[in-house]
Amino acid sequence: xxxxxxxxxxxxxxxxxxxxxxxxxxxxxxxxxxxxxxxxxxxxxxxxxxxxxxxxxxxxxxxxxxxxxxxxxxxxxxxxxxxxxxxxxxx
Length: 91
Fold this sequence. Notes:
Layout: E1 2-7, H1 12-29, E2 33-40, E3 45-52, H2 55-63, H3 69-73, E4 81-84
Antiparallel strand pairs: 1-3, 1-4, 2-3
């Protein structure tokens, strides 16, 4: 699982639309993306959570990122931070 945090002044509709395009493009080349969430922590703070089927799927996605990625992160006003979390219990 990856957790990405960033800040953006973009309208939420634009950011959500670009995130949706990124998710769809990622799944088109890497079906190991199990689920995604995008949430707002405050007016300009966003958190994205992506759960992968396994570490191999995440590694494959990192080796071949879709062209849509810069469009999403281009809206960030701070450098995004990414945490990789190993899920030990999923119910």
